[in-house]
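Subject: sequence -> structure tokens, single chain

Hey, anyone have a minute? Need the predicted structure for the following. Not urgent.
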Amino acid sequence: MPDAAEPTHPRAEDLDLAAVLAALGHPVRLDIVRKLASGERTFCGEVVPDLPRSSVTHHLKTLREGGVISQRPQGRKLYLTLRRDDLELRFPGLLELVLACRSRPLDSESDEQPL
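Reply:
Had a minute. Here:
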């Protein structure tokens, strides 16, 4: 049984494509994933410093439960890691494709989304 302070993470073999895509489906979460893709060691408080703590907590929980990141406590900080190997094992090429794509903003003069 995991320690109460230790967040739970889905096992690599249990990663679900719909959950991964849903976790990656928000611009803030995509930014978090891009930051973590650099490989630098990052903790929760510095990954998106300009958002309210409750919003950051929500986005990180969604990414963790979707199997995209892992969170590991060390002292008073919670460090983040991109689960690159697990995602590549389960869904080859998906993460690299997502990281290579840049989102396009909506046309400001139209309500239509770009194709």
